[in-house]
Design a protein that fits this description.
single chain, four-stranded antiparallel sheet, six-stranded mixed sheet, globular, mainly beta, 124 residues
């Protein structure tokens, strides 16, 4: 499995990735669980992220790109609170509410990896 984090030459939902992360981002893997270390900038008024929910237009965000092997496959991302989103997109923007955040990525009913943010810094 390959996951790209951080400074990618990509623009998603109206933001360049440099707008989201201050400096480098790394993911330290233990099995299928990756702990993200990065400084996540605080973003306000990002209507493109979720035009129907103003609460989700503010906060800290992390972007990743899944390996090309997942092109066209439905990927489900389950947050720690149990909410899920399914899409066939390789590019994902995660709204990170706190350093206890956990995102489980599922394809074909199997967990492919989990991202945690205990090593992240959430800037004010």
């Amino acid at each position: 499995m390959r996951v790209t984090a951080g400074k990618q030459p990509l623009c998603v939902e109206g933001k360049q990735l440099d707008d989201l992360i201050d400096g480098p981002a790394t993911i330290e893997w233990t099995g299928i669980t990756g702990n993200v270390t990065a400084k996540l900038k605080h973003i306000e008024g990002w209507e493109e992220f979720n035009p129907t929910n103003a609460t989700e237009q503010e906060g800290h965000f992390f972007a990743i790109t899944l390996d090309a092997a997942y092109t066209g496959k439905p990927v489900t991302v389950r947050r720690a609170d149990g909410t899920e989103k399914t899409a066939t997109d390789r590019n994902w923007i995660l709204r990170v509410p706190d350093t206890g955040a956990r995102f489980t990525f599922i394809v074909d009913g199997k967990i492919i990896f989990v991202l945690t943010f205990a090593g992240a810094t959430l800037e004010a």
